[in-house]
Amino acid sequence: MSRDIRICFIGDSFVQGIGDPEHRGWVGRVLQATRGDVTAFNLGIRRNTSEDVLRRCWQEVRPRTLPDVDNRLVISFGSNDMIEEGGRVRVDPARCLGSLAMVLDESHHQAIAALVVGPPPVIDAGEEHLRRVSKLADEMAALCRSRSVPFIATTQDLANDPSWIEEAVAGDGAHPGSGGYQKLTDIILSSQWHEWIAHPGR
Question: Which CATH code for domain 5-198?
Answer without folding.
Answer: 3.40.50.1110
